[in-house]
Specification:
With 337 residues, the protein is of the alpha/beta class. The chain has helices at residues 5-31, 48-54, 68-85, 102-107, 133-144, 154-164, 179-187, 202-207, 237-244, 279-294, 305-312, and strands at 41-43, 57-63, 92-97, 115-120, 123-126, 149-151, 170-174, 193-197, 215-220, 225-229, 250-252, 268-273, 299-304, 325-329, 334-336. It folds into 3 domains: 41-142, Glutaredoxin (3-Layer(aba) Sandwich), CATH 3.40.30.10; 145-244, 3-Layer(aba) Sandwich (Glutaredoxin), CATH 3.40.30; 250-336, Glutaredoxin (3-Layer(aba) Sandwich). One of its GO terms (molecular function) is protein disulfide isomerase activity.
Length: 337
């Protein structure tokens, strides 16, 4: 046995080294493990693919350190990250220095900074929504929400509306089969909330100005506007109603809301006023809503010079312009009327 001992030492050393290396690797893996802990993850070439395969929903900011817009976005992401991580279906926020990790920039066809994408089960979708933390949270929550939420009580209706917030239009079907709107709920999921109330009281119906079922209610909490559709629930009638109500009857035109018009083919009847908050302008806006109700083939909008003077100059408005001024605008040219 004594003669065999020298031969055992190399074997023992190899085992100890291997065991030690295994422990080190294990510690390293644990240290670099990706977790949805409410912080913004910093990704690179080594862990990017792991991240998008680990998390069902991950929002990625492809940034450059020298980019001013990226620098302004960063604290908004820090605020949004813990809120999104605590959702029933968590959304992880991550960022990649795409100026440094050019392979990722090339793979995802980046053409500027920041480029924002949300990966759903590994599949990327470009994000063009708001960037302020509170609005970012509301927007991203839609990605993990059901296409059509089924509401089983008056309380469920109230909770759904409160959870949806005020940024997007909300559709509630009273006495509708969800199959009647499912196709359109999927198609317009990024632009609105969709639900069907399966069990509800007369009081709940009256709260949304519904006097019979089936009915589909569309309302904009932010603009205090509500419309009810009683059918027919066939052919293209439902989709036409949904599309028309994605935009409020009278849309305040500014740098943010103009994005709502990107996919709308209708021409815009735009009224330029001095101050959109004064009494005369408010009265005019009420008339615009009435006109919009009677003609849904056009979008009716208004623009206050006091609020958005620089933007108003786009329509040849200056201090000598007699207001209100009305134009029909196809988003490329303008026509005086």
């Amino acid at each position: 046995m004594k003669q065999q001992l020298p031969f055992l030492f190399p074997l023992i050393i190899i085992i100890l080294v291997a065991w030690g290396s295994g422990q080190t690797i294990g510690c390293s893996a644990e240290k670099n493990e990706l977790k949805a802990d409410g912080s913004v993850l910093e990704l690179d070439d080594s862990n990017f693919e792991t991240a998008i395969s680990t998390f069902d929903f991950i929002f990625v900011d492809f940034y450059a350190p020298w980019c001013g817009h990226c620098q302004r976005l960063s604290p908004e992401l820090d605020l949004a990250a813990p809120v999104l991580a605590n959702l029933e279906k968590p959304i992880v926020i991550a960022k990649v220095n795409a100026d440094k990790f050019r392979r990722l920039a090339t793979k995802y066809d980046l053409d500027g900074f920041p480029t924002l994408k949300i990966f759903t089960h590994g599949h990327p979708v470009d994000y063009y929504g708001p960037r302020k933390a509170d609005l970012l949270v509301r927007f991203l929550k839609k990605f993990v929400a059901p296409d059509v939420s089924l509401l089983e009580s008056d309380g469920a209706i109230t909770n759904f509306v409160e959870t949806a917030g005020t940024y997007f239009p909300i559709y509630i079907g009273f006495g509708l089969n969800e199959s009647m709107i499912l196709e359109y709920a999927i198609k317009y999921k990024k632009k609105a909330w969709f639900s069907v109330a399966k069990d509800f009281s007369e009081e709940a119906m009256l709260a949304y100005d519904v006097y019979k079922a089936p009915a589909l209610v569309a309302f904009h909490p932010n603009y205090n506007e509500r419309n009810v559709f009683y059918g027919p629930f066939e052919d293209n009638f439902v989709e036409d109603y949904i599309k028309q109500n994605l935009i409020p009857l009278a849309l305040p035109i500014n740098y943010d809301t103009i994005k709502l018009l990107n996919d709308d083919e209708r021409e815009v009847v735009l009224t330029v006023v001095e101050d959109e908050s004064d009494e005369k302008s408010l009265a005019l806006i009420r008339l615009l809503r009435a006109a919009a109700s009677a003609n849904r083939d056009l979008v009716f909008g208004y623009l206050g010079v006091k609020q958005w003077g620089e933007f108003a100059e786009t329509f040849d408005v200056n201090k000598n312009t007699e207001l209100p001024k009305m134009v029909v605008w196809n988003k490329n040219e303008e026509y005086l009327i």
